[in-house]
Amino acid sequence: MDIKIQPSKLEGTVKIPSSKSYSHRMLICAGLADGKSVVSGISFSKDIHATISAMTALGAKFEINGDTVTVQGISTSSENAVINCCESGSTLRFIIPVACALGTSSEFHGEGRLPQRPIDIYIRELSGKGITFDYNNTMPFNLSGKLSAGDFYLEGDVSSQFVTGLMFALPVLDGDSKIIMKSRLESKPYADMTIACLKLFGIDISETDYGYFIKGNQKYTSHDCTVEGDYSQGAFFFTANAIGNNIKLENLAENSVQGDKKILEIIDEMCYNGKNGRLGHFKADCSDIPDLVPILAVLGSFGSEKSEIFNAKRLKIKESDRLLAISTVLNAIGGKVTALDDGLIIEPVEEFKGGEIDSFGDHRIVMCGAVASTRSKNPVIIRGADAVSKSYPDFFGDFKKLGGNFNVINLE
Prior knowledge:
The protein contains twelve helices and 22 strands. The protein has about 400 residues and is α/β, with parallel strands linked by helices. Helix 5 packs parallel to helix 6 (about 190-200) and helix 10 packs parallel to helix 11. It is globular, with a radius of gyration of 21 Å.
């Protein structure tokens, strides 16, 4: 789907979708629990459906009614499973250790750039503890065996998803385990979210000076819970407000531990540094908040001075090479963004000039383009705008309700 957006100011109220990160975690915990759990407030997307499908393949049962999912936890795990992760890196990296802990021989499939996203850490760490991989640097691939407890050594600068995946799996093994961090854990707020979710379902994990200690022979217990709103998605609308729109955001918890709540601090910093009614600038270490980088590039474009993003090298292996993608997209419509090896330099502009951009098949790039259009002199055309379905299928419905003016087009 290609769309053409006419520049317009957004105004009104938007209910932010529920946290995709929490939804993944709660659904997996519910699927591993004894008995029946109810998870409510879910905003469905391709990624969430991928996790539900994966847990179904492993033996859990899900009944969807509106935004509520009733989950019957796994009583007898599947001997064999075919698991399609679609384009969800979270599904892939969370479910691999879960399948291994259950002893389910599994065949993993994926789409888009997912087959190229690394799982080397799992191959190295799990292969020595009862798991056999048939893997040739792409998908599909197969694994078999049953995971044994022990010490797992993880790099902290690749993805916190590997830490979370092991946190799901290790508590149910016979014997205690350790997750030993070989370097500082980036995106640690996501690991904190995992620990919080596990605690709701009766699982205890201890943070230590070396990483994490996980006692074995624990049991997941059923629990009814509600998913809070997603600051990762809210960041697009907070940024829209900062650059001149007037949107009220609902469904966000003020006391949330989500790392992407950091967007509020960064915007406050820009307002504090501003002069004569204009935003200031920021320098953002994005090691813990990689998902904010694309929209921060839009925000920084309207500062009074150069803004900088650093410690974001991991974005080169997301749905797109996001450092290259966001710089290419914003520069195509009149921005001044330079992609570095681990970040971005953003020079201020008075407004975007408009033009045509490619989504790179990346949901966050699409939403950035839409927000950027609100400060554009001319229309913005987004090719492949349907990529938003990965995380926020109703984005353009909400965008329209707020006064966004666009139409679907066919480009030759």
